[in-house]
Amino acid sequence: MNVTRRIALSLCLACLGWSLSAQVNLLDSAIGRFGVIVINNTVPNSAPDPILNTLGGAVTITFADDFWLHLEPGLDLFWTNYGNDDGRAVPVESEAGDGNNVFVLGFLLDLPLMASWHFGTMLYPERRQRFTVGASLGPAFLFRAGFKGDTTAAYADKMVVNQAAVLDWFWQQGRWFYPSASLRFEALLQDDFTFVLGVRGFLAVSNLWTGLSPALDHAMLHVVLGMRIAIHPVAPTDSEAANETVPPTASPDEDSAPVEDSAPAENDETPTTGS
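-> structure tokens emitted (275 positions)
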């Protein structure tokens, strides 16, 4: 592993460790999600913009109860195909051959700071409002692993060269760093289950210092649907606790009261018979 990859992984692990350093009881909820991500491709004579399925999840880390800011680290997985174009990684069709087809797995780690606001009617009395809107900003890291997409024996050596060139492109000059922003809408369905709809944007800021033009090349737009499940159920309110009934206890007098024997006394006398 070269120095660039070590720096990227160290920075990512440091941010993740900081976000997860909160106490376990601050883990508010977990989200399972799937979606579609569109990658902006500006290279002429290459494949169209990749439109890819994603699968992932996130956890919510709160700072305090009912506070409007929280952390929400998440991880999403997607896959596509790239080829080597004179040292630059460009999208290619999945059936591309000629020893220039690298199957790429993308691991998108997002560490946003989320702000949320609740509105609408109460689904349950004296609990939070039913609907939530949110917005976030934060760092994101896109780590890619590449595998041979063309296994033709005649192109084996060429495939090795192109595979290395594609991975080098992705790991050089900070091309794994993608600051993110998002907007989200949530609807509390019942109990601890909440429907989530979100839109996230990721900017390849490495284009600013590498001189790659246009600057929006490889920017990404991600639309997700998910379900939030509360880790710590909502505690009952004061009024709910007051309405709980306490089973009655027996009084000391009732416990010490003697129990009368209702059975008839047994007659031990033997009846006499006439002579």
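The CA atoms of residues 29 and 230 lie 4 Å apart.
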